[in-house]
Write a structure and sequence with these properties.
mainly beta; 6-stranded mixed beta sheet; 2 helices; rod-shaped
Amino acid sequence: MKSIRLFLGVLLLVFISLSCLRAAWEVPETGTEGDVKQIITFQDKLFAASYSGGVYLTINNGLQWIPRNTGLGIDTVHVNCISSVDNSIFIGTDKYGIFKTTNLGDKWEQKKDNSIGPTSVYSMTSDNGKLYVLTEDAGIYTSPDKGENWNSINNGDIFGISVYTIRVINGTVYVGGEYGHIYKTTDNGLNWTDLKSSPLVFGVKTIDVNGTNIIAGTSNGVFISKNNGVSWAIVNSGLKNTDITDVKFQGSLIYLATRGGGIYISDNLGSNWYAVNESIPDMNILSMAFTNTYIYAGSKYAPVARRLLTEIKIPQLTAPSLVAPANNDINVDYNISFSWVDVPGAQSYHLQLALSNDFTNPIQEKDLIPQSTWGTTLLKGKEYFWRVATNGSNNSKLWSEVFKFTTKEDLLSTTLIYPSNDAKDVKQPIQFAWNKSSGTASYKIHISTYEGFDIIDHEKSGITDTTYSYDKLTKDMVYYWRIISVGPDAKTVDSEVNKFTAGAITSVFENLSLNNTLIEVSPNPVEDRINIKCNFDAHNALIEIVNSNGITVASIFNGEIINGKEFNNQNSVRGLSSGKYFIKIASEDRNYIYPFIIVK
């Protein structure tokens, strides 16, 4: 029974794996060369026209492609386009005109005609048994008899402009050209109508038509007309690349190929575009074709790829996942670049930056960000909160979680407080003290009998407070001390140097260091108010403040001390000058001295 469950589990994993594979683009076992400019279906087969590799055929839905170039002289012939009429296949080439085959490419025949000649053919299509081609110098021709005879349908109206693509729908011919020109004829070229109007002012490289809807692809985006070309609108929302190479209406969707951005789909006439590029081998797509089962993509640098149509769906929008700066990050560069994970189907993004996490008053805000990064400059040493929303259709927004971070400060040197320069007979233990410096992650102290610190008598690194206690110095010896501020990136800056003469150790009491929790003094250094907390019990205790010479300068308390008792006193320190002092506690069974600093 256990082995059966294991076998079924393996089968399930295989099925899931195969399903995932089918959900992405597939490359053939044997493929085409790149520069596939057009793909067509022919009966139950497909042909691909490659500018650099000639003509390829597949008879098994794109699993293998085989070259079909006999008679082409492929070393010199570059194929631009391909089409078919009945049992005949035609290709358009650079400089060598049109070739035809009636035996699936076993042999190609060059079609020479006095009216069309061996010219360059840029675009080709067929409609109702007629072949239409667009040639160099804007020559537009049609053949009613499978390439045996050709008729010009220019009629002078569009002669002399650069034209790029031709599309024919039930006898109506559309020709896309430079500067947004789309010429249309319904009478075989006797009369042409120019559909150009603002904002369509860029060269039209590809066209498709569905009812009254016309979609046009340019190197500067995609344009749509919903009224047979009377007016146009640009519809680039969601596109990460706007160099359009091919457009196709397919059922309820529009498919869009881009040179550098892969393939996009839209289910609302281009109002929103969604990328469908999972595992696509090349993002430089030049052409597309469809069967009932697959979409095929011809690209610049990779073989023709395919993907199941049933696996292509409009993605469900989600909120972005924030990447950088990370949550609770500190010492972030104030010249900052925000980044987040790109959401499939996102049209754009909305970023908010605030000093509080409710975002009631954002200090910076940017909407309609087309990519998943955005940069700005912030203040130094500030805590910020940020979030990003995915912009969907109908002005909907899906907000990410909120991250916070703190920008770094410039690393500055600290100012020394105690012992002051040239201080004499400094009693031990010495409570070294200095001011907090910006941009600092920790401090390092150096104590030396040499002014240049050639030999260091004592060093301590990793100090995160602004005080340090030490009592291993020689009485009456002159010492020098300095503080090194260390930044989060390990950069350092030195303080000035102070000189002092060490005195004797002053205690018949137990000297407590700052990290001892029996006595807690806050703040430390003290300005005008001191708070003392005693974490022990003591009977008949006397609490005093004494200076560094052991002289009592203030009395705080006389009585019983209960563990956790706090003493708040303002008057006792208000009249004292800056310097090192001690909390002195004397009782029946306990005697302590705890150092602190007063800074005015």
